[in-house]
Predict the structure of Histidine triad (HIT) protein (Modular protein).
Amino acid sequence: MGKSTTGNLQMNCELCTPENELLLWENGLCRVILVEDAHYPGFCRVIWNQHVKEMTDLTEDERQDFMQVVFAVESVVREVMHPDKINLASLGNMTPHLHWHVIPRYISDMHYPNPVWSSPQRAGMPAAPPDWRVNLARQLGQIQPHRKALSCHENSGSGQE
Ligand SMILES: [Zn+2]
C-alpha cells in the first residue's frame, strides 16, 4: 500500500471504476464531473485520475496542476451558480482516492450553514439559475490549463503510460 499504489487502478474503488459519471471536462490527469444531487445543483467534483490517497503523494507540479483545475472550477461555479458561499472539501475517508468537492452553498439550502454531509436543517431546495447546466458545461469546457503538463488534453491518450 502507500505510495506503491500510485498509478494503479483499484477495482473496488468507485473513482477508479466509475459508473454513470456525468463528465464535464478532463485533461488526462484529472476530470471534472457533475454530482447529480437535486438538493445541490452545480455540485462538481474534481477527481485525480490515478488512485492516489493524499495530496502529498503527488509531486509539487501535480499538486499545482490539480489545484489549478479545482480553482478554475470554483470560478466557473461562482459565475454560473451565484452561490452565497463555495465549499471546497477534500475528505476521502470513505473513498481514499484524491478528489475535491466544489459545492455552491446557499443560505436556504438543506444543510446551511453546516456541511452538506451533516444533518438536514430544513427542506431546502435552492432555485438554480436558468440554464445552469448548459452554462456550467460550456464554461467548464473553456478551462484553460495554465501549465504545460495540462495540455495533454489534446492528446489521445488516457493519461496512462
Ligand atoms: Zn481509486
About this structure: Residues 2-142 form a domain with the HIT family, subunit A fold (CATH 3.30.428.10). The two ends are 21 Å apart (CA to CA).
